[in-house]
Amino acid sequence: MTGLAARTADTAPTAVFTGIGVTAPNGVGTEDWWAATLAGKSGIDEIGGFDARTYPSRLAGEVKDFDAAEHLPARLVVETSRMSHFALVATAMALDDAAVDPASTPEYTMGVVTANASGGAEFGQRELQKLWRGGPRDVSPYMSIAWFYAATTGQISIRYGMRGPCGVAVAEQAGGLDALGQARRVVRSGAALVVTGGTDSSLSPAGFVSQLPTGLLTTVTDPLRAYQPFGTEASGYVPGEGGAILVLEDAAAARRRGAGRPYGELAGYAAAFDPRPGSGRPPALARCLRTALDDARLRPEDVDVVFADGHGTPGHDREEARALAEVFGPHGVPVTVPKTMTGRLYAGGGALDAAAALLALRDQVVPPTVHVTRPDPGHGLDLVLGQPREIPLRTAVVVARGHGGFTAVTVLRRTG
Amino acid sequence: MRPMDVAITGIGVMAPGGLGREAFWDRVLSGRAATRRVTFFDPAGFRCQVAAEADFDPAAHGLTPQEVRRMDRAAQLAVAATDEALADGGLDLSELDPGRTAVTVGNAVGCTTGLEQEYRVLSDDGRQWSVDHTFAVPQLYGYLVPSSIAAEVAWRAGAEGPASVVSSGCTSGIDALGQAAELLAEGSADVVVAGSTDAPISPITMACFDAIKATSTYNDDPEHACRPFDRGRRGLVLGEGAAMFVLEPTARARRRGARIYARILGYAGRANGFHMTGLRADGREMAEAITAALDQARLNPQDIDYVNAHGSGTRQNDRHETAAVKTSLGERAHEVPMSSIKAVVGHSLGAIGSIEAAACALAIERGAVPPTANLRERDPECDLDYVPLTAREQRVDAVLSVGSGFGGFQSALVLAAPDKAAA
Transmembrane residues, as ranges (chain A) (predicted)? Predict the structure, then answer.
């Protein structure tokens, strides 16, 4: 074997985040996005990418003013879809942020694990249209490599010569955290570095309309009132696009290459699945939170902030609030939902929340939840509303729940 | 690398020409191809008009009308295979801890068949770009997000532990089993219902493979359209299907006195970091994956009694993996039988890795090596023992199964008999 040293469980390396790249509806570039997030600047607006005026839901968090060709080689832009554009641009930022030079890092010690929820919707719709209007010979040869769920991981691996273990996690909104958990497994199996996180874009007409039958998207048309998780006016969620890519490293390997101070450690992770509908059994989240804390060898009182899933529909909000109260006690921990500024990014959502949590640990400030006019007092949450909250932060929990019952929790811990 | 020792205690297979584990095994041993002219739609106008279709009726496999409507074909196949595996595994579901039961489903192209059908209606066969939302059916979101497949399997098994779809293209079927074994090795679950599924025989997927000229053009001879390692091979033939397994730590399986088909002892994946569809001739990354998987299994090349090849029947693949096996197994490469079942069941993308693992587990349990069908004249560049045409009865204690896919992913899985000792 070249470079992948065998390790046993009791010497499992510590996995730390050393780089962040963001392409989000309220900011492209990690620091621009973070400044916007702290300022409460929202990227939710009327859909501009296509005509949504006839649809019952008309809002989205689109990444505007994003021209992939400004950041990527022309050939790569053509052979990939928008979800991969976001990831490739974010990866370049994250590697730059981590000051990693892939070309001088042993190839089999670098892995790539990304999340994806719905594939390259706009690329897929375009080629389906060509097929059904013109015939099979009109379909682009890039369709076979652009739309599928593994496209992003494959392209990152190829662009940077990362030839170690790779993977693709698919669990709707929970997948973004599952990717981080799988990336940590890859680090523990001996890899030095894993590019991980997630991005999604399903904002083509067919991609958007495919989301409507769940009845979970808000039909409110005022961007300032549409997505109100844990609020008395919760009416559903707004979908978005984009996400975040993170560099996760073996802490010892990062030290050896002279990396700067990591953003934080991936100290705990757990995944679970809700009971079959109608079973009467409790949702998985409280159990998943406890498992993740056990994994991090921490107690609920060690947690300084929770980045909640914040679905924005009354039923889901109630379930999540109940689990948080059960584990942390009523009003037991500050809770925030910065995705009120982006919408739900599906596979990109958990990754972006992890990025926000890492920057919160760095800057000792909790980003706000916006647009929630009246938090539902029945939820018993200490929601960080309107303004950022400066408090000492050592440990952050990130929650992501995916449609159907997918549940994932990560525990992020400030290092040093 | 953490050691893994995972028992396969239940197997369910839905494959072309073989619905159900026993029918599948008979079919792959027979070497009779299940490839035929496409019947699911009119393939006229397509470059490749052949596929390995399963004559699968979900109602005959116990799915209710609402389940049939709710699930795309990929999920239906997975659920039918799950039911068979659970029954075969002899698990008492009421005695399992739901939170310690996990689900890992490999899948490459999601619910593409259902998505395409519904897209045609939404867009009126592509006439509208701004599609008509009033034609959106309730199950459409489940088609958009293939995680719905893992949800269906989890509901079937009453699983409330970690659940996910592993979607690394054509190695998904191996990677799902590898990740399931990792979950058990790290102690995150007691039992994993794992495997993979795909149902890609639809116009858009056939057109995708046409566009890159990866599929066979033997349209006038459908049963001999896929010819792995043969001089006259012209490409792969798409297939569909699912294989699901009950996996548990070997120690647990022994405690409950379960029948153990085989054990998963090693898994590794590498990427070629080279090209999304192209392969480097030397097969270096696949060789790396094989060596790493053998190391984890603590087995030597000499221990391997059978290699289940990716053997897709494309010109570049068969050369590539022949080189990879030579590099990683050394002298043993020239002695060990190595066959591909894809000439019989087709290449079912994300599903095939698990379907092949089912063949490997049954080869170990029953002491037989399936043949490479349609291999009449070996390509001079492919100079190993590919078990042409006829199955062989022989003792099989350890098996290597490999996969290769778009994105440059290369995966290897090592399985061994219940009583096989480490080297």
Answer: none
